[in-house]
């Protein structure tokens, strides 16, 4: 478990042995203090077991320890080491048996109890795990988090909340415990208790931004937009420099038809280095939709575009801009933003396909031919790349090369009649250029047949 604290290393630094309360190791004399007055054979077997455990030969370690047991079974550490190896072998029943013997000999040994606790958890014997972890709490408060986790697994939610409350009072709040709390609230539907807890945190620590943000989120989750908005405005009053609060504010302003304030908040979000790219992408998406319906604010979108381009760490925000310009019919600007996105996501096939198609639409056939040819080295089984390459070659009056590319691509088409028909049309064009009218008609007829079948 996460609480193990080992005291010293030996055997070339590979093996770990817990310090015993009644023993210290002195490597300058015969080691008879740490293992009691035992024979040389016992000690050799014991250290052989430790060596085998260190190189993960747990079966051999168990064999050596069982031989030790035949010689002398008075030492608690013998049963502890057996238990550790049995746990590694997932023989949890045997581990429990020997670890209980170790604990019986030393009831207050943290490491023995911890190993026994792990065995119970692995067996999903949560009643015994709870009993054992309660004994461990006195050694370290982190064990209380384990106790809360087990209470949640066993649906003892009131007990879990009581433990979490005690820990929060003692140590202050933490993300780990908040996740445990949210598990409880989600499982029980105790939304009012969840919000009451967050309101109390805001009142107790009015300068902590995180508490407001969590409360805003929970209000919004419960469809209480009025209180969420009020909390967001309160945070802005207390911390006018907050950037994260604008992730909520812009939406409230949009819903309230306060366009100027909404745009101001969106600009803060999109220009922030604190806010994650995926959150920015969502805001930009809303911004694009807003401007599409309110063209008078397009200048604001253009203004923010440069900020997004300079600060983007992935292609999502740039793709949003590209798609906006596509809807507007401005293919050149769309292509520009797709190319900028590609610089951040060089292996994104969807981006590459959109770029190549725009090159064709914009009659940039040399770029389309060159880039599709390069792309085929990376994506040799993508039929659309052969089709784009064939279209570009046809447009460049390189019909023979177009035929070669299109013929190669046909082999990769699977259950896509429309694309297959497009291939046949381009082959018909290529053969017409080559003055092979018979083949041109053959492929033209194939294309028409496929279109009719659809």
Give the topology:
Elements: E1 8-10, E2 15-17, H1 40-54, H2 58-71, H3 76-88, H4 92-105, H5 110-122, H6 126-136, H7 142-153, H8 157-171, H9 175-188, H10 191-204, H11 209-221, H12 225-238, H13 246-255, H14 259-270, H15 277-293, H16 298-311, H17 316-328, H18 331-344, H19 349-361, H20 365-378, H21 383-395, H22 399-410, H23 417-433, H24 437-453
Antiparallel strand pairs: 1-2
Helix pairs in contact: 1-2, 2-3, 3-4, 3-5, 4-5, 5-6, 6-7, 7-8, 7-9, 8-9, 10-11, 11-12, 12-13, 13-14, 14-15, 15-17, 17-18, 18-19, 19-20, 19-21, 20-21, 21-22, 21-23, 22-23, 23-24
Figure out the total of helices: 24
* N-to-C order of helices and strands: EEHHHHHHHHHHHHHHHHHHHHHHHH
Counted beta strands: 2
> pLDDT average, as an integer?
84
pLDDT < 50 runs, ≥5 residues: 1-37
Which overall shape is indicated by the principal axes computed on the Cα atoms?
A: flat
Structure, explained:
This protein has 454 residues and is an all-alpha fold. Mean pLDDT is 84; it is low at 1-37. Helix 17 (316-328) runs antiparallel to helix 18 and helix 21 (383-395) packs antiparallel against helix 22 (399-410). Helices cover 72% and strands 1% of the residues. The protein is built from 24 helices and 2 strands. The longest helix has 17 residues, at 277-293. A hairpin with a 4-residue loop joins strand 1 (8-10) and strand 2.
Outline:
The protein contains 24 helices and two strands.
List the keywords.
454 residues; mainly alpha; two-stranded antiparallel sheet; 2 strands
């Amino acid at each position: 478990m996460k609480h193990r604290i080992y005291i010293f290393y030996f055997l070339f630094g590979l093996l770990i042995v817990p310090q015993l309360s009644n023993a210290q190791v002195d490597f300058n004399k015969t080691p008879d203090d740490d293992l009691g007055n035992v024979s040389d054979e016992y000690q050799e077997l014991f250290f052989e077991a430790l060596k085998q455990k260190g190189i993960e030969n747990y079966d051999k370690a168990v064999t050596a320890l069982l031989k030790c047991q035949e010689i002398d079974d008075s030492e608690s550490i013998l049963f502890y080491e057996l238990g550790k190896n049995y746990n590694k072998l997932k023989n949890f029943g045997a581990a429990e048996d020997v670890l209980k013997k170790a604990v019986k000999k030393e009831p207050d040994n943290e490491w023995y109890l911890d190993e026994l606790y792990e065995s119970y958890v692995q067996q999903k014997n949560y009643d015994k795990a709870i009993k054992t972890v309660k004994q461990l709490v006195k050694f370290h408060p982190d064990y209380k988090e384990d106790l809360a986790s087990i209470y949640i697994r066993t649906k003892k939610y009131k007990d879990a909340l009581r433990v979490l409350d005690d820990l929060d009072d003692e140590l202050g709040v933490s993300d780990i415990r908040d996740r445990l709390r949210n598990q409880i609230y989600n499982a029980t539907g105790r939304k009012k208790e969840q919000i009451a807890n967050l309101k109390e945190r805001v009142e107790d620590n009015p300068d902590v931004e995180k508490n407001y943000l969590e409360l805003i989120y929970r209000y919004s989750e419960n469809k209480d937009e009025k209180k969420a908005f009020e909390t967001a405005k309160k945070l802005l009053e207390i911390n006018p420099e907050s950037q994260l609060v604008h992730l909520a504010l812009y939406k409230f302003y949009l819903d309230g038809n306060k366009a100027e304030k909404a745009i101001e908040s969106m600009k803060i979000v999109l220009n922030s280095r604190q806010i994650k790219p995926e959150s920015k992408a969502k805001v930009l998406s809303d911004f694009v939709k807003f401007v599409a319906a309110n063209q008078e604010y397009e200048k604001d979108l253009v203004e923010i575009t440069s900020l997004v381009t300079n600060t983007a760490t992935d292609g999502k925000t740039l793709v949003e801009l590209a798609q906006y310009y596509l809807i507007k019919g401005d293919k050149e600007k769309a292509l520009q933003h797709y190319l900028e996105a590609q610089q951040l996501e060089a292996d994104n096939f969807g981006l590459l396909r959109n770029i190549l198609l725009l090159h064709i639409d914009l009659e940039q056939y040399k770029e389309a031919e060159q880039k599709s040819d390069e792309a085929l080295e990376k994506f040799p089984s993508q039929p659309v790349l052969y089709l784009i390459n064939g279209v570009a070659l046809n447009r460049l009056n390189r019909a023979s090369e177009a035929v070669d590319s299109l013929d190669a691509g046909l082999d990769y088409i699977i259950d896509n009649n429309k694309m297959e028909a497009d291939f046949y049309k381009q082959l018909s064009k290529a053969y017409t250029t080559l003055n092979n009218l018979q083949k041109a008609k053959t492929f033209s007829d194939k294309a028409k047949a496929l279109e009719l079948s659809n």
